[in-house]
Amino acid sequence: MKPIIGIDIGGTKISICLAKKDGAILEKKELPTRLRADAKTSIKEIIDTVNLILFQHRLSPNDIVGIGVSVPGAVSPEKGVIPESPNLPGWKGVRIKDILRKKFRRPVFVNNDANASALAEKLFGIGGKVENFVYVTVSTGIGSGIILSGKLLNGASFSAGEIGHTTIIPGGPQCNCGKRGCLEALSSGTAIAAQAKRMMEAGKFSELGSYKAKPGNGRLSAEIVADAAREGDPLAVQIMRNAGHFLGIGLANVINILNPEIVVLGGGVMKAGDLVWKSMEQAIKREAWPGPLKVCKIMRSKLGEHCGDLGAISLVLMEQ
Amino acid sequence: MKPIIGIDIGGTKISICLAKKDGAILEKKELPTRLRADAKTSIKEIIDTVNLILFQHRLSPNDIVGIGVSVPGAVSPEKGVIPESPNLPGWKGVRIKDILRKKFRRPVFVNNDANASALAEKLFGIGGKVENFVYVTVSTGIGSGIILSGKLLNGASFSAGEIGHTTIIPGGPQCNCGKRGCLEALSSGTAIAAQAKRMMEAGKFSELGSYKAKPGNGRLSAEIVADAAREGDPLAVQIMRNAGHFLGIGLANVINILNPEIVVLGGGVMKAGDLVWKSMEQAIKREAWPGPLKVCKIMRSKLGEHCGDLGAISLVLMEQ
């Protein structure tokens, strides 16, 4: 039972873990993600950290099954070159697969982070019997990984599952991607914070006005809006409900197109609780077609904080 | 090279053909679709017609590869029982697969009509090299068949590809399905005719007012609107452009979710020409995510009038 190295490269931190095949994390270390000119330093730090973990566990590279690397954006699993991504400026073109393979002489598997999480759901979450499901992460952005007939749908240019940029309200609020009315511009953490800011600036009464006293350098975050909603702030309640409502429409569209067995939801916004969940469910029930709706379970991800690590190691496990 | 029997059951007619493996139609006969209490008569007529065709070509059932049957609605290919469908009242529960198998003692393959057309595209249209594509039919209703990794996506309850009932405008125009703002309520032939009627009743000036003199018992059809648009009627032009615009948004959503190599479009409304096509393309370009958009070709189906027949025989050919 050789262990696996998982590397989850995110916009703010890089998580590197050593794990067993059953998903038990033996070791986990985090690095800050260096951007732009410093990206090369991050690569060196990743290699050093993998070496350190192996050393601490008295392992040589030959003692591991392989290395799984999850990255943001549309990446070719075959080439394993980091794509252009707003979350990783300066990393574009980094041949992460080749670099790690040459260094450690073990198989390296690279894929998108949402895809990796979907595989983790299959292996460690909803279970291996489910052959057709969609994993959706609602966080700073909104992404998804699609599993059909037990296999990941990569798509013709490795960007299948971009549900965050499906259009929910034509001509609606501006999205960071340049389009308007995208799901991500309506239901992501970013959208929730922006909406709260906009409405308070427009003079809507809200206890949210006290958020400057809270942690986060006075920056209004989705977490603060969620907290305020839980405390009963009416504006915050409305904003969280709206986010859930539009999320439900987006998911209903996915359900109508793919007719999956399960939609499983992860990411920070889904921790906000029943306010988002209930209005999301209502919208799904109203907008999804009865046939696909009847068979589709909507579930919360149970992977928790290790979702990213489990995703990275799943990229190796799925190829065994 | 044994031939194949194809049976395409639609809401107004049933087409029965004998065809070669290369798609050459050797014989084709049409029956009116009997609804409700007369459905059983239709079944008998189908059997009689298959027997007649076999007799005329001096064939016994053993001389054919099998029988492919396409039907509207979400049908289990394994069970082959006709599902509830607004287009086939009275046919629900007809065990078409068992009936034909017992009668002719040959393999019978049943699937949804849009799925069957997608397979026909793979075999006789865009070509077998394309592994990931979506066939969309824009006609009285809007449906699609999805091919991923060369195989049909049936979905957990056999209703994958219901893009006609994805929500394009939340709370928008009423759809026949009971929901609001569905793609089908915005871009189908039914929607085009309804929109023209509504706008004329609201007093909008249009040459369409003369439609009562045209064929079709004074019933305003999408075809009449398309004709008027081609003659330059400004209201008709606007309606056709709007239909194309919303179709483009719906297709962009599909492109963002599935990242297909090709979207191929068939059905009567797509014959309406450049008015629909251009505004559809513009909307796709604006609403699709750049990565998936760049690799996705948007094409017209070249299957033509035999699309339904080729679909039915493809159900047999794909299983060989």
Structure, described:
The structure is a homodimer of 320-residue chains. Chain A is of the alpha/beta class and 320 residues long. Chain A folds into two domains: 4-120 and 306-317, Nucleotidyltransferase, domain 5; 127-301, ATPase, nucleotide binding domain (Nucleotidyltransferase, domain 5, 2-Layer Sandwich), CATH 3.30.420.40. Chain A has ten helices and ten strands. Chain A has helices at 39-56, 96-104, 113-124, 184-187, 189-201, 222-230, 234-258, 274-287, 290-295, 307-317, and strands at 4-9, 13-19, 25-32, 67-71, 108-112, 133-138, 142-148, 151-152, 262-266, 297-300. In chain A, strand 2 and strand 3 form a beta hairpin. Chain A is globular and about 60 Å long. Chain A starts with a strand and ends with a helix. The model of chain A has no long low-confidence stretch (mean pLDDT 93). The A-B interface holds A 74, 132, 146, 148-149, 151, 153-163, 165-170, 177, 179, 246, 249, 252-254, 256-261, 286-287, 289, 291-292, 294-296 and B 74, 132, 146, 148-149, 151, 153-163, 165-170, 177, 179, 246, 249, 252-254, 256-261, 286-287, 289, 291-292, 294-296.
